[in-house]
Design a protein that fits this description.
This protein is mostly helical. The protein has two domains: about 1-125, Arc Repressor Mutant, subunit A; about 125-180. It contains six helices and three strands; from the N terminus they run ααβααββαα. The protein has helices at about 5-30, 35-50, 55-60, 65-80, 100-120, 125-180; strands at about 55, 80-85, 95-100. α2 (about 35-50) packs across α5 (about 100-120) and α3 crosses α4. It starts with a helix and ends with a helix.
Length: about 180
């Protein structure tokens, strides 16, 4: 069991690189030299939301910062893949949807990905499919748990720093009051 974390790290790295190469292959096959894999993932996230998505919703879904997603969406808009529409009720809110070109690209990508996944599926027997699905579910649960624990530690650390800062400020204020 001691080798497992190292082996898991290698397996995940290989899977990540392979998935990235798959997406790069799609861009080459579709002759889409004007967008990156990251931009393709943003198009997919918008495409999944049929009616479009807000910038903040996209940032949350993709776990990117608001400035990062804003810059990426602006580039995709300049390239003609997305449209932005300001909300009538809240002028700060912007809905992003796929343009005609974006819809064509997303549709082609979705179909291409389905073919790739079908090909992977065809290489597995029923037992392997079930084991793989269970393993991925277990991995995702464990990863979420670890990430939640990490987030709680960070929040606790931040709260301690803020409490220490408040305490130092209060001590300084008390010292100043005594000096007067």
């Amino acid at each position: 069991m001691e080798r497992f974390p190292s082996e898991l790290n290698e397996l995940l790295g290989d899977a990540y690189r392979s998935a990235g190469r798959m997406d790069e292959e799609f861009l080459v096959e579709a002759e889409l030299s004007d967008i990156s894999v990251s931009e393709l993932h943003i198009l997919r996230a918008i495409g999944v939301e049929n009616g479009g998505s807000t910038i903040s919703g996209l940032a949350a879904r993709l776990e990117l910062t608001l400035p990062t997603i804003t810059v990426a969406v602006n580039k995709l808009q300049q390239k003609g893949y997305v449209k932005k529409v300001k909300s009538e009720s809240d002028k700060r809110s912007v809905t992003v949807s796929l343009s005609h070109q974006g819809k064509k690209t997303y549709s082609a990508y979705r179909k291409w990905r389905e073919r790739m996944l079908e090909s992977i599926n065809d290489g597995l027997n029923d037992t392997d499919r079930q084991m793989l699905a269970r393993a991925i579910h277990a991995f995702n649960r464990s990863l979420r748990r670890v990430m939640d624990e990490s987030k709680q530690k960070l929040l606790s650390k931040k709260a301690r720093r803020e409490a220490e800062r408040d305490e130092a400020r209060d001590s300084a204020a008390l010292s100043s009051d005594k000096d007067e």
